[in-house]
Design a protein that fits this description.
Elements lengths: L2 H10 L11 H6 L10 E5 L6 H7 L3 E6 L2 H11 L4 E5 L2 E6 L2 E5 L7 H4 L4 E4 L8 H15 L4 E8 L13 H8 L3 E10 L10 E10 L3
């Protein structure tokens, strides 16, 4: 899946994955990360998610990574913020009070450009990537964040009935990617109302990932 796929999605407004309100699982379970206010939360492949506004309104700092500059321009417009824009290597950095978004290829994001973070919230990154890239992504994510605690949301459905994204990521795959580093806990699972894309029965699951004790 090439970068052009996502650029075209945003250019055409084909963003059914974008939710008009903060994600219900996120609102319900973010507190399980036990983060003090002013903590810095990383949202990979963030788009213009409303979850960012939710975090900012509650006193958290946000750092995101997103391929589409169009999405991030819309995000700042919706937040009513005028970002300072600078170049950081292959990336563009959009910065305003308590928000810092890196625009470009997430694999170009390094520990240095990301900075110190307290937790990861992944609603639409792992499930947006094809199977062949997910191993690379999860390894990279743990590397640049020092395996920070994570709230992860996945979908599971019969991939033969419809194609992704979002792709189906089952429990075994979550364990395959993260089980050696994190203690994994499924904190809630429910059927997607009306089916995924209105076409296929799907289960949505929220996972809490805490670094395993050595």
């Amino acid at each position: 899946m090439k970068a052009s796929f996502w650029h075209q999605k945003w250019e055409r407004g084909e963003i059914a994955f974008h939710e008009s309100e903060a994600n219900a699982f996120f609102v319900e379970h973010f507190g399980r990360l036990n983060l003090p206010k002013d903590s810095r939360v990383f949202l990979p492949l963030c788009g213009k998610t409303r979850d960012i506004a939710w975090l900012l309104a509650r006193g958290y700092r946000v750092v995101g990574a997103e391929l589409s500059a169009l999405a991030i321009n819309e995000l700042f417009k919706e937040l009513g913020l005028a970002p300072e824009i600078s170049n950081v290597g292959e990336l563009a950095r959009y910065r305003a009070n308590n928000i810092d978004i890196l625009v470009g290829d997430i694999f170009a994001v390094s520990t240095e450009t990301l900075g110190s973070i307290s937790a990861i919230y992944d609603r639409a990154a792992l499930v947006a990537l094809p199977a062949g890239i997910r191993e690379q992504y999860t390894s990279h994510l743990m590397s640049i964040t020092d395996a920070a605690p994570q709230l992860l949301i996945t979908y599971e459905y019969n991939q033969q009935l419809i194609g992704g994204p979002p792709f189906s990521v089952n429990e075994d795959e979550v364990k395959q990617h993260y089980g050696a580093t994190y203690q994994l806990k499924s904190v809630e699972s429910k059927n997607v109302a009306g089916g995924l894309k209105g076409k296929v029965t799907s289960t949505e699951t929220a996972w809490l990932l805490q670094k395993a004790s050595k």
